[in-house]
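User: Fold this; tokens only.

Assistant: Input:
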Amino acid sequence: MFAGTLFALAAGLMWGLVFVAPLLLPDYPAALLTVGRYLAFGLIALPLALVDRASLRELTRADWLEAAKLSAIGNFLYYLCLAAAIQRAGGPLPTVIIGTLPVVIAISSNLRDHARDGRLPWARLAPSLGLIALGIACVNQVELAALAGKAGADDLRRYAEGALLAVVALACWTWYPIRNADWLRAHADRSPRAWATAQGLVTLPMSLLALATLLGLQALGVPLLAADFALPLGPRPWEYLGLMLAVGLFASWAGTLC
């Protein structure tokens, strides 16, 4: 339990990077941030796959399909929605919504996994969940005050869009850790490091396909990006590359491992 708690804290610290990237690169669209993050994740996974090649050979077709599902929903769809939410509503509102994950995941797990793990009595779980919720409110009091000061129809529309996208991201990342835990519990003899690397490997073709789609749509004149946006690296290529590599390594691979 102690080791598991430390790993969870480490994962949470590294996942904080995903909120920073869209704010540091506000002129980059959410789709390009998503493609860049997971292209970096996939490229980082290639040399790591050589280290874990023996463990990766043990994965079946069903395992690779599961890794693809986890990556598509827990990686691509989640981060696309989160980055778009942050760019529409700023950092405070999506952070408050995503910050409820500890409570939402705990409640969902207690409802869903009781046949396997037993159900923790709600009266026993409630004080912990209440303290977590209070902590979230305390941590985000500045953000909540900033939200209360916003006005205007355009602001409200963008905030509503951002809130909806953040809720979709919340749903994706409630599903992901529970589903990922199912596989890990069912394959206790497998290497968690190899499983994190496998998820990185399946993101690589997804990222390349998404990048090719962006380039193709831009060439056809479909206005997903600004007309003068310089694909594939944008107006600040070094900042973009460095941040995507950092997020891909720490938030994606190391966070998944933890």
